[in-house]
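Bumping with the actual sequence this time:
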Amino acid sequence: MPRHRKKIIDVVSAIVLLALVMLDAMLWRIIFAAAMDVARGVASQPRAYSLSVTHGTSTLLMLSNGVTILTGAGLDDAIVDDLQKYMPFGAPAYIDLAIIPSPDVAGYEGYQYILQHYAVGAFLYNGRADSMHSAEWQQLSALIATKHIPLITVGAGDSIHYGAIDGIATTTSRVGNQINITAPDVAHAHSPNASDTAIILLYNK
């Protein structure tokens, strides 16, 4: 083989090898960054996880700037094992907003167990007075008050703004992204059917 052709092949081989090494380094950087985000409880893209609960439903929303919103907690401590898969106790164990979707005990009883492991920035609920007549609600509301966590009544037309101050969710800021609350509206807020009073969120990416 002519010497000049051999040199060309060697140069091409070196370029290909260098490109492969750079690609490999980039892939590992992406993997490492994603792993660090998971460890810090920060998702690179907004993600929603359906959590296993004994009764009812629960959803964990992890926004790209680290804001976490938990809707529903089930009836008992079953949610804690599933929640720590996405938010380990060793990581910043902080939930920005915990939403009590309806007066049903299955929607909030599990929060008593969550509060044993996680700090919560604020609780949102629909303000139904009939919730306060149950022993379960009295226990949870007393625990929330003891921990000095705001308990905020919301309904259709309200909104949550986040990303304004260090990625913290707030109901007052007008900077950053927004989550709109579309239910319950005035017509359904006092319905005898608990499912009519559930809080529904509309997330705008």
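The tokens above came from a reply further down the thread. The radius of gyration is 24 Å.
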